[in-house]
Amino acid sequence: MASGIPYDTLVLATGAVPEPIDASLRAAAGERAVHRLHTLDDLRGLLAALPESRTAAVLGAGPLGIGGACALRMRGLAVTLVEREASVLPGLLDGESARVVQATLDDLGVCVHTSSASPIPEADLVVACTGITPRVGLALEAGLPVDGGILVNDYLISIADPRIAAIGDCARPESGVQGLVEPGWDQARRLAQLLAGMPADEVPALKARHIVRLHTPGLDVAVMGERPRADGSPGSDPGRVISLLDPQARRALRLVVRLGRLVGATAVGAPGAAPDLIVAHRNQTPVPADPAQLVIKGTPFRQTFPESSSGGPFVAPVCRCNSVSAAAITEAFEAGARDVGAIATATRATTGCGAARRKCARCSTRCGPLRWPPEPESALYHPRYTSRTPAKHALPRLLPIDQEEFPHDR
Amino acid sequence: MTNGIDTHCPYCALQCGMRLEIAEPGSPVPVIVRGRDFPVNRGGLCQKGWTSAALLNSPERLTTPLIRRDGRLEPASWEEAYAEIVQRVTAIKAEHGADGLAVFGGGGLTNEKAYTLGKFARVALGTRYIDYNGRFCMSSAAAAGNRSFGIDRGLPFPVTDLATAGVIVLLGSNVADTMPPFVQHLAGARAHGGLVVTDPRRSATAQLTENGGGIHLQLLPGTDLTLLLGLTHLVIAQQGVDTEYVQARVNGYPDVLSSVAEWWPERTEEHTGVPASQLREVADLLVRNSPRAGGPGVFLLTGRGAEQHAHGTDTVQAAINLALLLGLPGQRGSGYGCLTGQGNGQGGREHGQKSDQLPGYRMIADPAARAHVAAVWGIDPDSLPGPGVPAVELLARLGTADGPRGLFVHGSNLVVSAPNASVVEQRLRSLDLLVVCDLVLSETARLADVVLPITQWAEEDGTMTNLEGRVLRRKRALAPPEGVRDELQVLTVLAQLLDSRGHFSADSNVVFNELSLASAGGKADYGGIDHERLDHEAIYWPCPTPEHPGTPRLFETSFPTPDGRATMWPVKAVGVADDVRPKAPLYLITGRVLPHYQSGAQTRRVAELRDAEDYAYVQLHPLTAQRLGIEEGSYVEVTSARGHAVAPARLSSDLRLDTVFMPFHFPGDQRANTLTTDATDPISGMPEYKVCAVSVRRAHGYPFPMRSAG
User: Fold this and answer.
1) Are residues B679 and B653 in the same domain?
2) Residue B48 is part of which domain span?
3) Which tens digits make up the pLDDT trace of A28-38?
4) Do B269 and A303 touch (CB under 8 A)?
5) What is the pLDDT of residues B17-64, one digit of tens each?
6) C or N: which end of chain B has fewer Cβ atoms within 10 Å?
7) Reduced to 3 DSSP states, what percent helix, strand and coil does chain B have, rounded to the nearest 5?
8) At which of B312, B338, B364 does a domain end?
9) What is the complex's ipTM, to 2 decimals?
10) How far apart are CA B364 and CA B381, in angstroms?
């Protein structure tokens, strides 16, 4: 270079490029173009090729490859997903979880070949999602230490030159991960604060926890933190591993809990549980005494807990706005109130938001207040809700409830 | 039917219509409360409203001034009380100047009292230090509204407009407990499956979304802003932007567009804990029901849950941005609004209680505003003080070396309601003079040097401005007890005794006419309103002339900004001020219960309400309780970096595993605000009431389990 730009600090944010296409792949692809999913132009090129394509081969079953394969499948192409390793999402998932993902892909109509050393299947389109390589040419020329990325310390400064920093996909910090967008932003924020002169001990540390999330219609995968270790592996406390394996329902959950915190989790096919796991992991909030509850909570089953709801419908307010219980209405009824107006005068039931009016009308004309059905439509009459801590011995229902009439009763 | 006096409820901003009938002699209460058909409540009242008369003749009512002598509050005559105040005010002023004094007002005061209080501070005391508890309620929404729309009126449309909407999004609002008769206005959206409630807790309002009523987004505390950015991202991605509206009426769209690019649904899910599928569902509801798509209409409404954060203004801004790009504000049957909390939270912030404002929403730093108001007050504009400081900062300065040494408190119970309340209590104790006007001996009045017993709603005349910006008449139904005085009278007498410039009046009609002059030409223009007009009809401001019909709906043709357009501002998501950590691994959120209002100074003294709920509690998930060895009813200690509170546990799967809830109406050991942080929003001064980090454990030395109070 003939001319240079003087600097106090040089920040390298050169990113990464897709793995180069090796000779065997090039040969196998023959005359077909090999598409990438790295830049916006890559996508435009792929979209332009779609009208003439009926079949596609996607190489590499990482998050990008799976997302790409599913997207092409949704556009009506016959898709084959090819992975050199023995399972999909290699390095991210254990074998059982990976098999559930593979079965789900199969359900979605994506044909998966693993352990594949064979040539690229016949297909109109070839898309290579075989990983990325950090762009470190400049760093290498400058003689900076590079090993899978420019080696930097936790201040994002090169371990060899204090005037050079690196962030994003080209950098390999002491702690943290590579290849995701949010860690890159986090590094950029931290470096900017340091360069702007904020004292180092006040600059928030790099966020240690990042989540790999795959969310394509019909396939939901969240992977975070530690993976379960193989049995008997040496080292520190492996933690408690809780698994829920349900291949028929295309579901696999695996939690790693240590010292009451969720230090790792894999959730396949559990979109209801995933957000709770992610938040519990990110914030390191304590998990329940039985950590399996974290997963069960995410399923659509209502649980029965001993909780404040145990008062039951008789002591729960019929009219929340005025804290009027069925018992109070019964009392008014027995004292001679026979219609909604009279009950309202005696108890103020129905005189707030009006939601209890229909219930009162139904009961006082048809059943009498002793037969007080739970009201499915209105949360204003919610069995969980009592306005005060109820007595442990809830009053029983006086008459059986017609379940047919109230199918949503819980 | 001329029997009875038509007025409005003493409590929240819904201001339900009431009729008061004088009770037979010997009745337990002096007036009978009847629901009155007024659009906001259609005859309904909640338990607080129905029982409001109980406080009129409560034995806990103060009927004589109290003066602290030798450390004890002792009865005194009004003359003694006035003399004590005047002597000590004069001494403080002589030693520390006018800024040695401060005033703390309230959002429950009538417009006339709020106006007179602001004037009393600036003219009679001459201090710049005045602010009020509305800073704790409306300030974030007010700041964002002014910034975007050029005006701050809670709802820029009548509440009854909600009836036809397909979607109503309640962002951090629990109306089923806080203003129950409001729930009837949600019926249309619920029938349409379009009620969306964002709340970390499955509150009574969130439960209204069940069984097809809509969607409850049970977000992580403090992530309201992130959630809104994620929804905005989705609405843009789903091509839901009303481009015609945005081009014609809104500035700033390109910046907002790029600012939300980073909040794709799965990332929003990671940060908020709300499943991406739910976010998509809600975005779809918004787009399909928006006026641009020919839908029945969409309303976005914010409450304290979204606003009471150290980034509350930005959160409201994000809601406004979303409303603007959906093309809602100014379209009939759609809009953005904020649900005002306190009875006169709207009027209370318009007439000079805010540290930087003069009546009519005029800015005190603006020379033209100063000249206008000074002319009405008959004083030299240069004699008006400059801007003061917002509530939290004002409270922090009390009794410090350069801070105010004397404080007047009206319509506020700071000891219970202020954030980080133990510190506020210390500040109040360090004052040379604390004067408290109240009906009862509230926790704050207990610390006072002089307590003045004052009238309450059924005993006074004046006006209130409800959550719709509608000015209402409050009417006197009966004479106050012997020894009790109206605050207008108190302030007038004190002004005279302090040889104040200007003219003060104890007649609410005279005060209103002056207020109307002072507000004329301002943003909140009451120029064409007087008591007599209000006797016939409640009027929406702005109403500049006697012939003007008032303005039920704002923004129909333009926004009150210099270029007539609304402005979007890009905002960034920020973490919570006091976030969870290993030693404090749970979030505390605070809120209200149905039977109580604010600090509970009034409602805790009504037997029927106390009967419904007489103690604070800590609501937590049964699994969280199980982990901590806590059973239903056992006393638990909740500890934050600021202190600890103790209350019995209530187990409920309505909570997230990582969150506990406490109602904030209770004093002493049960005081939730001992725990809350006083970190504030840099723009609005709003404290972050709605989230802080706590640890929870079984409390020792308390009875176990709590005796069931039934």
Assistant:
1) yes
2) 5-55
3) 778 888 999 99
4) no
5) 999 999 998 899 999 999 999 999 999 999 999 999 999 999 999 999
6) N
7) 35, 20, 45
8) B338
9) 0.89
10) 10
